Amino acid sequence: MVKIAPYGTWTSPVGIDLVASAGGSVQWVALHGTEVWWAETRPDEGGRVALVRRRADGSTADVLPLPWNVRNRVHEYGGRPWTLVDTPQGTRLAFTHWVDQRVYLVDPDDPAATPRAISPEPQRLHGHRYADLGPSPDGTEVWCVRETQISDAAPDVRRALVALPVDGSGAVRELAASHHFMTGPKVSPDGRHVAWIGWDHPAMPWDGSQLCVAAVTDGELGPHRVVAGGPAESVCQFRWEAADSLLVLTDPQGWWNLHRVDMTGAVRNLAACEAEIGGPLWRIGSSWFAPLGGGRHAVVRSGRLAVLDERSGTVTEVDNDFPIWSGQLAAHDGVVVGVAAGPDREGAVVRLDLSTGGHEVLTSHSAPEVDPAYLPTPVHRVFTGPDGQTVPAYVYPPTNPGFAAPEGELPPFMVHVHGGPTGAVSGGMDLEFAYFTSRGIGVVAVNYGGSSGYGRAFRERLLGQWGVVDVADCAAVALALAEQGEADPARLAVRGGSAGGFTTAAALTSVSTFACGTAMFPVMDLVAFGSGETHDFESQYLTGLIGPLPEARTHYEERSPSNRVGKLAGPILVLQGLEDQICPPAQSERFVAAVRGSGTRHAYIGFEGEQHGFRKAESIRVAVQAELSFYGQVMGFEPPGVPVLDLAT
């Protein structure tokens, strides 16, 4: 029998332990022959990243035991952390280890083998970081990008393409340093050339980047040539197709499309379309396409798996049970593997045979052990922003078959703001969202102006307007749900992490739409962030999002939540990793100190051992339960079985 109870007080089998254990992710998928390899985050193992191998016989096992953590700090978001190298001694696994950021080598077929470091121990902890690893032409070295911390100042970083001898006997060789930022070098099929992507401040890689090619002579690189990209063109992925041509995702027409580029720089779009085949290069080594042979390519187009046929110039969506695919794609002999998800399942490693349509889920955690009736079905909606622009969003309604609200009561709603801000939400299942929706709290995830996936023009709506367009779009979506009778206008919350945390705090201090908000590892002080209080990768990001300093300093000051504490429209909860190098805890702590004593209810929780985002199961438990308790106290409901969060004034 359905029980009548206020929104927010419903009980649910979507428990906090389920949410915490599902807080991991799968990533860095690759094929080695018929074997599938991938990395996955393990919240119940302290948030470590494990490397997993699916053999041809169907057995699946971790490649490396605890405490090995296959992760790195390049750009702080990390890059592809492993590769297989066919050395003169046999196939070896090269990988980066989080604890010391060094590169290690091990025989993956010898369970008794102990990984040994092939990169030197740096003078300062994490002084050298490596990513986007690959083999040298002869297999005697690992070629990759190295990031070197020069001083204690976070943005004081130098990068170079380097070679590490696999036997660990020689010194690290520097191959090239064409740009301030680079991806790892990839060798052509004949071993005579390498290619990489580079870009310089103040551009982010999705603003403008270049594809570079250099000749290889006796293991040394000659001068590089730029064959694609530019100051207003973004290259996000490439693969060697032959000794004299590359397949390249780039956007000279404003959409990431697949192109063929030869060594002279001649470029041909293989299937022009106003859709994104590609994405923002937050982590180097991502893959949105994989060749299938015969002029056909598996691609991720606007988050959907498709096949591009260059002979007909068409891109055709592949009918399959997983509507959402990410930039983790590999293919061989008509079989595609990648990370796929759907409205009823989290991201999983999936192997799909294009000829038969048959698929196999290779990871075990994609289907939650809970009745699907408690999981919300996200509905894609398009709203209208205050400037008349479209604002796509996914609405996750309150969903619980055992409960209904009293007649006439409207549900509280959370507006979820994704990070980046050059990021996006895709409408997949999110157990954290389900934790709230199954208790009677709606969620709407907004792709505000500046989000990726809708072309360069939509992305550039945010140029000079961060803290304005994003706030206005999120507020417009919330108000539209209220006006349409789907949400309680007095119980609207805003929440987000990183850039989404900034938008949360900016909204609470600039509009009256929201009753409260949760800012997770946020930017709070734009002047400090733009003046070096962050890591190198994003240290000049605000030049595009706000304007150059010192010319635009007034905008930085006006839009900083830290300068508008007195204008808070309602209570705020701040959650912060205490080892965060991207949005340092000092920003959150200064903000909370300014709120203290103001009369505005607030809470602050700092998480030991967490960086940018929460990876440990216990951190996820504390954060999600604190958020639910916070909303209950502000919006007037009492969620059962949840520890009460202490709110200060």
UniProtKB/TrEMBL annotation:
GO molecular function: aminopeptidase activity
Full protein name: Dipeptidyl aminopeptidase/acylaminoacyl peptidase
Pfam families per UniProt: Peptidase_S9
Keyword Lyase found: no
Domain of life: Bacteria
Family annotation (PANTHER family): PEPTIDASE S9 PROLYL OLIGOPEPTIDASE, PEPTIDASE S9 PROLYL OLIGOPEPTIDASE CATALYTIC DOMAIN-CONTAINING PROTEIN
Peptidase S9 prolyl oligopeptidase catalytic domain location: 430-636
Taxonomy of the source species: Bacteria, Bacillati, Actinomycetota, Actinomycetes, Pseudonocardiales
Keyword terms: Aminopeptidase, Hydrolase, Protease
Tagged with keyword Hydrolase: yes
